[in-house]
Automatic annotation (TrEMBL), chain A:
This is Carbohydrate ABC transporter permease. Its main location: membrane. It is found in: Cell membrane. It comes from Caproiciproducens galactitolivorans. PANTHER family: ABC TRANSPORTER PERMEASE PROTEIN MG189-RELATED-RELATED, SN-GLYCEROL-3-PHOSPHATE TRANSPORT SYSTEM PERMEASE PROTEIN UGPE. Signal peptide: none annotated. Coiled coil: none annotated. The chain crosses the membrane at residues 12-34, 74-100, 112-135, 141-163, 191-212, 244-266. The keyword Transmembrane helix applies.
UniProtKB/TrEMBL annotation, chain B:
The keyword Cytoplasm does not apply. Residues 1-21 form the signal peptide. Keywords: Signal. PROSITE patterns: PROKAR_LIPOPROTEIN. Coiled coil: none annotated. The lineage of its organism: Bacteria, Bacillati, Bacillota, Clostridia, Eubacteriales. It holds the Pfam family SBP_bac_1. The keyword Plastid does not apply. It comes from the Bacteria. This is Extracellular solute-binding protein.
Length: 281, 439
C-alpha cells in the first residue's frame, strides 16, 4: 500500500516537473520562434500577424541583412574581439584565482573583496571616465583597447568563479607535486589548470557572450566601419522613425547562430562547471 | 612539457594581442595615411534604411569627392537610446562631433554657455543665398536668454491627423471635424461601426505625448509652453490640468485601441494601414507608409487634416504642432575643421537637397526657395505643406521649452499614466513635483 502511494506520488511529481519544464521551454523558445518567423516577413506582416507563419518566405531579408549589416567584415571583427577577450581572461583570471585560492596572502581577504567589488560597479556609472581616458589617449578605433575594457569588466566575475572552483580542488595533489619537486608555476600549469578546465569553460562562455553581445562600448569607441563588431551592424536597420524589422530579425538570427553553436559545443563542460563552484570537499 | 605549456600560454596571449592589434594596425595605418585629412564627425538621427538616409549619405559622398582631404565619419544612430548614450558620453567627455543634434530648446543654455554649440547667425548672414529658411523654424533655435541662432532646421512638417476617408464616410461623417465637439461625435460614430477611432500606441510614449501637445496648443497656444518652461505657469494650473483632462476624456470614451498603454507605435500604424483604425496622429515621415498599396491597403482613402480646435478658443485654431529637427555645430571648431563642417552643413540643407528630400522621400527641410514638382511630390505631402503654411504659431513638444532635460520622460509617462487610471490632477501633480524637486 505504502509502496503504491510512493509510486503514485513519484509519478505525480514527474508530471509536475515535466509540466513545469515544458512551460519553461515554451517560454524560452517563443521569442526564438518569433524571431525566426519574423525574419521572413515584412513590417506589415510582423505587426499585423506577429505569431503566424510567414505568408511568403522572404529570403531576401537574409541577403539584405548580410549586406546591410556589413556582416562579412563585422563577423570577423566580433570573432577576433571575443576570442581575444576569452583567451586573455582565461589566462589572467586563472592565475589570479590560483594565487587567491592557494596562497596564504596577508592581504588575501582584502584582495578578494577588491575583486568582488568590481562586480558591483554598474557600467553606466563609469562610462564617462572611460570615455575620457579613451579620448585622452587617442584610443578610439583601437580593438586592443576595446578588448582590454571587456577584460577589465569581466575579470572580477571570472576570478570569483575560478577561485571558488580551485578552493574545492583536493590539496593532496599539490602536496604530491611539491614532494616531486614542482614549483608554483608547474603546479599552476600542470595540476590546477587541467583540473580547472570545466570552470574555465564556463567563464569563457560567459565572457564570449559578453564580448559578442556588447553594444555599448563599440558604439562609443568604434566608428570605423572596418572595425565595427556585429552588434553595431544590427543598429544599421534602426531608423529614427521606424525600422526594417524583417532584415533586422534575419540579422539577429545570423548573429545568434555562432554563440549557439559555441554553447552547444561546450554545453557539457559548462553545465558541469556551473555546479562545480558549489561543491566542496 | 613545462616548456611546452609555457610556450602555449605565451602563444595564446600573443595570438589574442596580435589578433587585435592586427586589425588596429590596418586602422592606424589608414589613420596615418589620413593623418592630414580633416575628420568631420556627424551624430544625427539619420540612420536606417529609408530613402531620406540614402539621400543624406549621397550628399556626404558628394562632399567627400569634392574634398579628397576630408573624411566624414557618420556616427548617426536611429535607435534613440543608442543615440542618447553616445551623445551624453560625447558631451561629458569633451569629444563632441562636428555636427550633432540635441532635443529641446531651453535646455541648450548650459551647452551654449560652455561654448559647445556654435552661434550660426554670422554664417547665416554671410550667405544670403543659403539663408532662405522659414523664419519660424529658424527662430525656434533662438534660445531664451542667449543671442544668436544655435541650430539649422533640417526637418519640418505639420504633425497632422491622417484619417481614412472611406471609414469616415461609412460611419456617416461627411468631412473631417474642425472642432473638438465634432471630433468627439466623429469618434462615437467610428466606434459605432467597430473601428478604432484613433490609432494610438502609448507603449511608445511619444504618441500620447504628441496627442497632448496638439490639445495643449489648441487650448492654450504655443506661447503657453514657453511659460511652463520659464516657470510663469505651473502644470497644476487649472487650464493645464484641463488640457490633460481632454486626453483622459478621449481615453474614457474609448477613442484608443483597448490596452493602448501596452501597444507600440508600429502595431497601431499597421492597424491604420490596414483600415482597422480611423485616424492616426503623425508626421510627414510616415507618408511613404500611407501610399504604398502593398503595405497599406487603405492607401487611396488616406487624407490629412489639422487637429481640431476648441469652439471656445478660436484664437488658437492655427497654433500647431510641427516637427522641427536641428543640426547643431560644435562650437569649439576652428580653421579648416570649421570651414569644412559649415560647407557640409550647407550642402545637407541646401535648396537642391531640400528639393530632393521632399520629392524623393517626402522629407521637408523648411526652406522658402524650393519649388516642388507637383507631379513628383506625394499629394499628402503637398496638403501637409499647404496646411503648415496657415500656422500662426508653431512648436514641437511642450517640454522643448523646459530647461529640465528629464521633462521629456516625465511628461510623457504622466500622460500615459492617465490611460491606466491616473486622474489629470494626479498626472499634473506628478509632472509639477519633478519640477519642484529640481529647485
Amino acid at each position: 500500500m505504502n509502496h503504491t502511494n510512493y509510486k503514485g506520488r513519484k509519478a505525480l511529481g514527474k508530471v509536475g516537473l515535466f509540466t513545469f519544464l515544458t512551460a519553461m521551454a515554451l517560454m524560452f523558445i517563443c521569442p526564438m520562434v518569433f524571431t525566426v518567423f519574423s525574419s521572413f516577413k515584412d513590417n506589415t506582416e510582423i505587426f499585423g500577424d506577429p505569431f503566424s507563419l510567414p505568408k511568403t518566405f522572404r529570403f531576401s531579408n537574409y541577403v539584405e541583412a548580410w549586406n546591410g549589416a556589413n556582416m562579412s567584415t563585422y563577423f570577423i571583427n566580433s570573432l577576433v574581439i571575443s576570442i581575444a577577450t576569452v583567451v586573455i581572461l582565461a589566462v589572467v583570471s586563472s592565475m589570479a584565482a590560483y594565487a587567491l585560492s592557494r596562497f596564504n596572502l596577508k592581504c588575501g581577504k582584502a584582495l578578494t573583496i577588491f575583486f568582488l567589488a568590481g562586480m558591483m560597479i554598474p557600467i553606466h556609472t563609469i562610462l564617462v571616465p572611460v570615455a575620457y581616458i579613451i579620448g585622452k589617449f587617442n584610443l578610439k578605433n583601437n580593438l586592443v583597447a576595446l578588448v582590454l575594457i571587456y577584460v577589465a569588466f569581466s575579470l572580477s566575475f571570472s576570478i570569483y568563479v575560478l577561485a571558488r572552483f580551485m578552493k574545492g580542488i583536493n590539496r593532496s595533489l599539490e602536496e604530491a607535486a611539491i614532494i616531486d619537486g614542482a614549483g608554483y608555476f608547474q603546479i599552476y600549469t600542470r595540476i590546477m589548470l587541467p583540473l580547472t578546465v570545466p570552470a574555465i569553460s564556463t567563464v569563457s562562455i560567459f565572457n564570449f557572450l559578453g564580448a559578442w553581445n556588447n553594444i555599448l562600448f563599440p558604439l562609443l569607441f568604434i566608428n570605423d566601419d572596418k572595425l565595427k563588431p556585429i552588434a553595431l551592424g544590427l543598429l544599421n536597420f534602426n531608423g529614427e522613425r521606424g525600422s526594417a524589422y524583417g532584415p533586422l530579425m534575419a540579422a539577429i538570427v545570423i548573429t545568434v547562430f555562432i554563440p549557439m553553436v559555441i554553447y552547444l559545443l561546450f554545453q557539457e563542460k559548462v553545465e558541469s562547471g556551473l555546479a562545480a563552484g558549489a561543491v566542496k570537499e | 612539457m613545462k616548456r611546452l605549456i609555457s610556450l602555449f600560454l605565451a602563444v595564446a596571449l600573443c595570438v589574442g594581442m596580435t589578433a587585435c592589434s592586427g586589425s588596429t594596425g590596418s586602422q592606424s595605418g589608414s589613420s596615418n595615411s589620413d593623418g592630414k585629412k580633416v575628420e568631420i564627425r556627424l551624430l544625427t538621427r539619420m540612420a536606417g534604411t529609408t530613402k531620406q538616409v540614402e539621400i543624406f549619405k549621397d550628399i556626404i559622398k558628394e562632399f567627400e569627392s569634392k574634398h579628397p582631404d576630408a573624411k566624414v565619419i557618420d556616427e548617426s544612430q536611429g535607435d534613440e537610446s543608442s543615440f542618447n548614450n553616445k551623445l551624453k558620453t560625447d558631451l561629458s567627455s569633451g569629444t563632441l562631433p562636428n555636427i550633432f543634434r540635441i532635443q529641446g530648446v531651453a535646455n541648450l543654455g548650459e551647452y551654449i554657455d560652455n561654448g559647445l554649440i556654435m552661434d550660426l547667425d554670422p554664417v547665416l548672414k554671410a550667405d544670403p543665398e543659403w539663408n532662405k529658411f522659414v523664419p519660424g523654424a529658424l527662430s525656434y533655435y533662438q534660445v531664451p536668454g542667449h543671442n544668436g541662432t544655435y541650430a539649422i532646421p533640417m526637418e519640418s512638417g505639420l504633425i497632422g491627423v491622417y484619417y481614412n476617408e472611406a471609414l469616415f464616410k461609412k460611419a456617416g461623417i461627411d468631412s473631417f471635424p474642425e472642432t473638438w465637439s465634432q471630433f468627439k461625435t466623429a469618434i462615437q460614430k467610428l466606434k459605432a461601426i467597430n473601428v478604432t477611432p484613433i490609432a494610438l500606441g502609448a507603449k511608445t510614449t511619444y504618441m500620447a505625448g504628441h496627442l497632448h501637445d496638439q490639445i495643449f496648443y489648441k487650448w492654450m497656444g504655443t506661447e503657453a509652453a514657453k511659460k511652463l518652461g520659464s516657470r510663469d505657469m505651473k502644470w497644476t494650473d487649472p487650464d493645464v490640468v484641463k488640457s490633460l483632462g481632454f486626453v483622459k476624456e478621449l481615453n474614457d470614451m474609448g477613442a484608443f485601441p483597448s490596452g493602448a498603454a501596452g501597444i507600440s507605435d508600429d502595431i497601431v500604424l499597421s492597424q491604420f494601414q490596414k483600415g482597422q483604425a480611423g485616424m492616426i496622429i503623425t508626421g510627414t515621415w510616415n507618408i511613404s507608409n500611407f501610399t504604398n498599396k502593398k503595405d497599406c491597403p487603405a492607401a487611396d482613402d488616406i487624407k490629412v487634416a489639422k487637429f481640431p480646435s476648441f469652439d471656445e478658443k478660436p484664437q488658437y485654431k492655427n497654433e500647431d504642432m510641427q516637427v522641427i529637427s536641428p543640426y547643431m555645430v560644435n562650437g569649439k571648431l576652428t580653421g579648416k575643421d570649421k570651414d569644412y563642417t559649415i560647407e557640409l552643413l550647407k550642402m545637407l540643407t541646401s535648396k537642391d537637397a531640400a528639393k530632393r528630400f521632399a520629392e524623393e522621400a517626402s522629407f521637408l527641410i523648411p526652406r522658402t526657395d524650393v519649388t516642388l514638382d507637383t507631379q513628383k511630390v506625394n499629394p499628402l505631402l503637398l496638403k501637409n505643406v499647404e496646411l503648415g503654411k496657415t500656422s500662426t504659431g508653431i512648436a514641437v513638444d511642450v517640454f522643448d521649452f523646459d530647461p529640465l532635460a528629464s521633462m521629456q520622460d516625465t511628461t510623457r509617462n504622466a500622460i500615459v499614466s492617465m490611460l491606466v487610471g491616473s486622474s489629470p490632477e494626479q498626472a499634473a501633480q506628478q509632472i509639477q513635483s519633478e519640477i519642484d524637486k529640481s529647485k
